[in-house]
Amino acid sequence: MLKLSQLTLAAAIVAATPFSSATLAQGTKINLGYATASDFLPAFVAKENGCFAKGGLDVTLTRVQIIGTIPPALLAGSLQIGIGTPPVLIQAVDGGLELVAVAGAARMLKANPTISLVVRQGLELKSPADFKGKKIGVPGINSVADVMFRKWLKNTGVKIEDVTFIETPFPQMSDLLKSGTVDGVTAVEPIRSRIVSSGVGTLAPDEYYVSVHPDTLLSFYVTTAQWAKANAAAVKSFRTCLTEAVASIKANPDAAKEVEKKVLGFNAPKFPSFSVDVKPDDFKFFVELSKEFGLIRKDIDVKTIVAP
Fold first, then answer.
1. I need a labelling partner for 183 at 20 to 30 A (CA). Which of 47, 97, 208, 219 fits?
2. Interior CA angle at 215 toward 273 and 68, to 5°?
3. Is the dihedral of CA 53, 57, 62, 67 positive or negative?
């Protein structure tokens, strides 16, 4: 349970949130698909402190094992908003799906990397060449963690085909490392720290992701263009609550950790670099990267994949 002082502050933040009466009356139902990662803590906090409800949003949090399953779930209407990463959105749009990013979740910064390669205990992978013949677990084939690792291999002169990639949901990474099914995993917080602290794996010496690029959009929230247009007020309320939640996390990190523990089951040692803003320019690097690896067949106008 949240402490009284923490609840008081949360209530004050919600009370100060600028929602219109029309928004409050809307009561938009949103099934929000999320992954086991601390990137999405602001959404958990906004649900816990009542901001979503105050903003006329009836939000249900639904854990999703593989991010790549979110686009079809959005189209089917089983999710209204889901979490996304740039390669997944870009490939979906290239495939003809009309999806748009509605808000940012977190950025990957060189000063605060939250995705790392974790190798199984006792296995020494000190240089990129050591990965030849190894099996690497990624949270989704062509996910951002996967594509950036492939780019890192390429940049360091290792042939991508010399490494086997296995789709490995975050919750299963520790067990598959321990059993030797995979030799390493691209793990995000708090999964990364949990694997290391349990003794199942150790961090690889090179922070591969930020070695490729020191500042990128890592994760965000996505929906269909049709839903975003039909629910413009709900999108605005959603963004407002995320912004307020980020401020609440900074002001009351202990309260935020309680929410993180409640939803994810454990805490990361530190928070990701939360960022609600999402701009078309955030996707330019990933469009070029997708072209480089043949993941898309045509150019993508980045202006069309971010909701107004």
1. 219
2. 75
3. negative
